[in-house]
Amino acid sequence: MVGIKCKSCGAEDFTKSGGQVICNYCGSTYILEDNERTGKETTISLSSDIDILLDKMRMDPDNAKRYANLILDIDPSNKEIYKYL
Ligand SMILES: [Zn+2]
After folding, report:
1. Distance 46 CA to ligand 1 centre (A)
2. Which of 13, 30, 68, 80 makes the best surface tag, with the fewest CB within 10 Å?
3. Separation of 10 CA from ligand 1 center, angstroms?
C-alpha cells in the first residue's frame, strides 16, 4: 500500500518492486515518480533508487532540492547530492 490509485482499474493495492509499484489487481506498473506527483510521500529504501534520484537531480535542476531531500530520507549521509545542488 503506497497511497496511490491504479489508473487502469482504480485499485489502491500495490506491490513495490524496485523503482516501480505494481497493481495487485490488473498488473499495471507505475514508476514511483507518478506517486510523487500526487503529493503523497513514499519511502524508497533501495540504494538503486538513490542512483535514480541522483539522475533526476542532474536532469531536472529546478527540482534538485526536492530530490536531494528524498535521497537524504533514504541515506542521510549521502554526499553525492551536493554535486548537483
Ligand atoms: Zn489496476
Report:
1. 24
2. 13
3. 6
